[in-house]
Amino acid sequence: MTDQENHDYQRWLDTVATRSWRLRLGSDLTVGHGAVLPIMNPTDGSVLAELAQASPAEVADAVDAAAVAAPAWRALTPRERGGYVRRYADVLEGHADEFAWLDTVDAGLPLWMMCKDAATGIERMRMFADLALSLSGLTIPASAGNLHLTFPEPFGVVARIIPFNHPFMFAASKLAAPLVAGNTVVLKPSELTPLSALRMAELAEDILPAGVFSVVHGGAEVGDALVRQPLVRRIAFTGSHGVGRKIQRSAAEVGVKHVSLELGGKNAMIVFPDAELDAAIAAAVKGMNFAFAGQSCGSTSRVLVHDSLVAEFTDRYVAAVGAIRQGAPWRPGVQIGPMISQQQRDRALGFVQRASSAGARLLVGGGVPGDAGAGYFMQPTVLNGVTPQDEIATEEVFGPVVSIMAFTDETEAVRVANAVEYGLTASIWTRDLARAHRVSRAVDAGYVWVNDTSTHFPGVPFGGVKLSGIGREESVDELLSYTETKAVNVVMS
Ligand code: NAD
Predict the structure, then answer these.
(1) Which atom of ligand 1 is nearest the CA belonging to 396?
(2) Cα 171 to middle of ligand 1, angstroms
(3) Other Cβ atoms closer than 10 A to 95
(4) What predicted TM-score, i.e. pTM, was given to this entire model?
(5) Which of the four, 204, 308, 356, 370, has the lowest number of CB atoms within 10 Å?
(6) Catalytic position from the list 297, 396, 473, 478
(7) Which residues pair with 149 in a beta bridge?
(8) pLDDT 10s per residue in the chain (493 long)?
(9) Measuring CA to CA, which residue among 63, 34, 66, 67 is closest to residue 229?
(10) Whose CA is nearest to atom 43 of ligand 1?
(11) Whose CA is closest to 443, among 460, 423, 464?
(12) Catalytic hit among 58, 191, 262, 478
């Protein structure tokens, strides 16, 4: 590490340790009064800071403030609300470097990638501000001489609960659609990575009206308390399917609430014999999202390659994965940092050990790098000799682990791709347009790439089928999902 890199890193460690981290309850910035949680540094296993969670009363205060603010906020025009979101995006953009550093220190994700994430979060806020004018209703000629109208009405208070893997990007982008649609929002970031969301909340002061946006900090109990608040009518969750199901259960126990779920994936990349091989190999590296240590819902963790290509593909892919540079995430050139926690790292290692015991061949990685120290590092890992029904081929590892499997024909490729409970993304590699269309329609996935992977196109609905969730985001579908239709019939005769 150069002196300058070391200096910058130390400066951010000091900033995180000494800054007073506060919740935003309505317009009040306050330290939490719940149990204190350590925020860990994934790079070396040290404690970055200690933060108090929101108490149950503070969760209720945030929701009450959001409910008080809701009538005035919904009374604004969509364009006016979009204007607020745009101004907030401008302010956040002025602090983009700060958010990138906070996420790098807090989540262990590479600094260059967190700079891109910060830009993406801000871009998506602006996209929803632009979509404000698409909020409109219909006139329906349902009877002669009368008027039949529909209005997209906001729900009131929306709870947004997000995971650890894109801390700022998710906090920023997932705030925008509910706000533009006329709701007020209480956000709960992951208890593992709350820093950028708490900083974002500070910067909302003087930008967003009181109560329109609150941030509470804490784990499962705080999330559950938020879900159960009577005035929360709409819950949008991004995270694991296990927690998603708990949220559905809790919501159903206390009322009838609208719940959308962006959950995990066990995504297949399918390489047909006519694929452009160089591009497909590069995409298989990109698609696994090693920059996130494989901790990405859309990661192509199963690579299905036609028999005729599998030997060459595997050799070249393994060489490319073996060359990935691992290290401290703020160092330039580092392509993979640590995983989020010791628990997640040990869970991923456990998957690999069980797969090896069951007969899979470890082609590269599979362990902890020699210089990991107390950091939560795991080597990029590739296996073959895996059967489609094995645990490693069906469960979401959420770590840097890829299985390569061979197939003989299109029917088998689709059958194997669909032989999992998840259905988030798929990546299809072929130059045959008819095959591309056929297979895209046949795979169980909400978001499909043909001759590409990992790219999210703003405006194109993202979300999963099966265990991967309910609902679509990143598009006008997301905006409208924060409204419910009111029909008004004006009888004039
Ligand atoms: P997680 O499900 O453990 O936690 C997500 C959030 O839920 C956190 O804020 C957590 O505090 C909160 N939570 C936990 N228990 C709760 C409860 N009982 N009630 C309310 N909230 C509760 O997920 P994670 O480990 O942070 O993230 C990884 C998962 O997220 C993976 O499965 C990944 O695929 C998924 N994910 C999906 C998408 C998508 O767009 N589909 C995007 C990113 C991550």
Answers:
(1) 32
(2) 13
(3) 17
(4) 0.97
(5) 370
(6) 297
(7) 139, 488
(8) 576 777 889 999 999 999 999 999 998 999 999 999 999 999 999 999 999 999 999 999 999 999 999 999 999 999 999 999 999 999 999 999 999 999 999 999 999 999 999 999 999 999 999 999 999 999 999 999 999 999 999 999 999 999 999 999 999 999 999 999 999 999 999 999 999 999 999 999 999 999 999 999 999 999 999 999 999 999 999 999 999 999 999 999 999 999 999 999 999 999 999 999 999 999 999 999 999 999 999 999 999 999 999 999 999 999 999 999 999 999 999 999 999 999 999 999 999 999 999 999 999 999 999 999 999 999 999 999 999 999 999 999 999 999 999 999 999 999 999 999 999 999 999 999 999 999 999 999 999 999 999 999 999 999 999 999 999 999 999 999 999 999 999 999 7
(9) 63
(10) 297
(11) 423
(12) 262
- Sign of the C-alpha dihedral, residues 291, 465, 470, 119? positive
Per the CB < 8 A criterion, the answer to whether 258 and 246 are in contact is: no
Which one of 193, 238, 376 would you pick to mutate in the ligand 1 pocket, going by the greatest count of ligand atoms within 8 A of its CB? Answer: 238
Ligand 1 pocket (Cβ < 6 Å) reads: 161-165, 188, 190-191, 219-220, 223-224, 227, 238-240, 243, 246-247, 262-265, 297, 396, 398, 424, 464, 469
How many angstroms does the Cα of residue 241 sit away from the middle of ligand 1?
8
Task: Give residue 1's pLDDT.
Answer: 58
Return the residue whose CA atom lies nearest to atom 30 of ligand 1: 239
Q: Which of 120, 165, 229, 241 to mutate to test the pocket of ligand 1 (most atoms within 8 A of CB)?
A: 165
CB of 385 closer than 8 Å to CB of 356: no
Please, which residues have CB within 8 angstroms of residue 322's CB and are 6 or more apart in sequence? 364, 365, 380
Angle at 348 between CA 192 and CA 332, to 5 degrees: 65
Question: Residue 27: its pLDDT value, please?
Answer: 86
115 noted as active-site residue: no
Rg (CA), the chain: 23
d(CA 244, CA 242): 5
Of the chain, the end-to-end C-alpha distance in Å amounts to: 80
